[in-house]
Structure formats: structure tokens, C-alpha cells
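The pair is quoted verbatim as follows:
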Amino acid sequence: MAAFGKEAALILVDVQKAFVEIEDAGRRRNNPQAVANMARLLEAFRNRGLAVFHVRHASKEPGSLLRPERSGYEAIGEAAERADEPVLVKHVNSAFIGTDLEQRLRDGGYETVVIAGITTNHCVETTTRMAGNLGFDARLVEDACYTFDRVGHSGEVESAEAIHAMTLSNLDGEFARKETTETVLAALRHSAAA
């Protein structure tokens, strides 16, 4: 079993109320337990004194629910940051572009990044790809992220489950390793016992 020590950091990507508002407006998503799983990961990392980085998207697009002055910009309560936890603000898909995330990870000696958040096939995927390309041991927690149904290029509706699964397939083994909340929690327990 893998173990996560002090070299591991949790990165929560765009866990923001805009996505709750999108769902409330009728968009269907997958992984209904995802936010609860993010909260479980957050609690476990906090309890072990491990690093946590919150990433928030501040859209510059007119009308975006993720604009800083709108309610959708705020963090979802269960996975919100504490006063002593850094919040990195980005304006593009990758949490590494326009932020000091890479420098913070390097300075802290964090080699393993455990990634969760919203949405799987946008900012979570882009951040995960870049983490892998930068040489981090990226672990994407498949049941602690989600996406929405969307109309594909053919005009047909593609299910959130299919989009999520394809994104995981594209990333696993090439840019990251898939994890579940349970495998991460087990690895943390194993580390604490060692």
C-alpha cells in the first residue's frame, strides 16, 4: 500500500458555489458524494498536519457565475478554507498558470499532489495534466470530483458519467494515478502508523 507522508499536499480545485447554482438550475452531474468526499480528504489532511491548497477561479468573462463579485465565486461550505490555508486565485483552467502554486509546492518539498475538485474535464483535468508534466506524483481522486452532462460536437447529449470516465482514462497512467477517497485515507492511516 502506498503511504503519504509530509511530502504530500492536497489541492482542491474550484470548489465553488457557482457549480451548486448550475446544478440548482437543472444541469445534471455525476458523483453526488463528491463534495462530501472532498470534505473527508480535507479533514484527514488537516488532522495529520499535511499541506492543503485551495484554488479558486476568478472568471474575467462577462456574466460568468465565477466572477469575484458574484455569489458563485465563494467556496462551498463543507470544503471551504480555514484562515491559515492558502487560497490561490486563477483566471484560466490550470491552477499552475498565473499563481505561485508550483513554487509553493517546490519550496515545501511536496512531491505528491492529491487533486480533487470541480469540474473533472476542465480545471481539474488541466491542473492534473500540468502537475504530471511538471514532475509531481499526481493522484487524481476519482470520487472527489465531478462534471456535468453536456452537448457534444455531434449535437448529442453526453452524460457526465461518460465524460468523467473518459477524462480519468486519458489521465490515468500518463499524467496521474487514479485514487479513490478510501485509498487516499487508507494511505494516510498507513503513513500515520508507520
